[in-house]
Design a protein that fits this description.
This protein is mainly beta and 273 residues long. 8% of the residues lie in helices and 39% in strands. It starts with a strand and ends with a strand. Bound molecules: fe (ii) ion (FE2).
């Protein structure tokens, strides 16, 4: 059992074997939505794999019961996602991927484990033309701002399970269709094997291989990045969980409901060599 209180800002424990969350008494939560391999078939590189049956668990709209009014006032939702440490055939374990309607962004934090976040910005006229791709490498405590216009998947490179939390506007539902139609993200991130050269990521030094998704007409090259340490206007501070922002400085989360009123040019530090 891993105590996630200091990392998440909430009274949470991780039952690492199952893996599932255990909530303290003052937390409002519901049973998680489970993403299964059947639901993921279309976005996998290896479509015939059957295991693991359950991939990740989405705990949506969890918060301290006393915080319900402030979340409602600011039109925000807080989620926690638990992603198994396994792989999907040749691919690293990943989420299905989605876009947000309009220009809504998102704010993630790595609560436990290691994370690769693959961001892609499609052309406004053609979703099969990808103008920008960023692979963000992050570890426990680091925050990832998803800027407006970017679809995203989370990848768990292991060896532990990955737990992320996120703040997001409560005013929309995610849109999974374009990832399904494109049969996955712009690139597949796979485990290296003996037949291919592969590469080592600049940040976390993870050995990976990258395959282009042939469904796309044009793909920008991948830029590697890590999250900026502190971003004052979003109240992001190292070693301070994003959950606490709602009580410390809720205005700083306004960018989630008014994304185009803000700048995003300093959210990543590019690490390409
Ligand atoms: Fe999202």
């Amino acid at each position: 059992m891993v105590d996630l209180r200091d990392n998440s800002g909430l009274d949470l424990k991780l039952d690492i074997e199952r893996p599932r969350l255990i909530f303290g008494e003052d937390i409002k939560f519901s049973t998680p939505a489970v993403r299964t391999i059947d639901q993921m078939k279309e976005v996998l590189l290896d479509k015939d794999i059957r295991e693991p049956v359950e991939l990740y668990y989405m705990y949506r709209d969890i918060h301290k019961t006393t915080d319900s009014p402030i979340l409602k006032e600011h039109k925000l939702r807080f989620d926690v996602t638990v992603i198994k440490s396994s792989h999907l055939g040749r691919e690293f374990m990943k989420t299905a991927g989605h876009y947000h309607p309009g220009s809504f962004g998102e704010l993630y934090e790595v609560v436990f484990g290691r994370c690769l976040c693959l961001l892609q910005r499609p052309d406004s006229e053609d979703y099969r033309v990808i103008k920008e791709v960023i692979l963000v490498e992050a570890v426990q405590g680091q925050k990832i701002v998803i800027p407006p216009g970017f679809g995203h998947i989370l990848i768990n490179p292991g060896p532990d399970c990955l737990v992320t939390s996120n703040w997001v506007s409560g005013c929309f539902s995610s849109s999974y269709e374009l990832y399904r139609e494109a049969k996955g993200a712009a690139y597949f991130v796979i485990l290296p094997d003996n037949t291919s050269e592969g590469m080592t990521t600049p940040g976390l030094k993870i050995k990976i291989n990258i395959i282009k998704n042939q469904q796309f007409k044009e793909l920008a090259r991948i830029k590697f990045a890590k999250p900026a340490g502190e971003i004052k206007r979003f109240s992001l501070m190292e070693n301070n969980p994003i959950y606490n922002i709602i009580n410390r400085n809720a205005q700083a989360l306004n960018f989630l409901n008014h994304p185009l009123d803000y700048e995003y040019n300093d959210i990543f530090i590019y690490t390409d060599t």
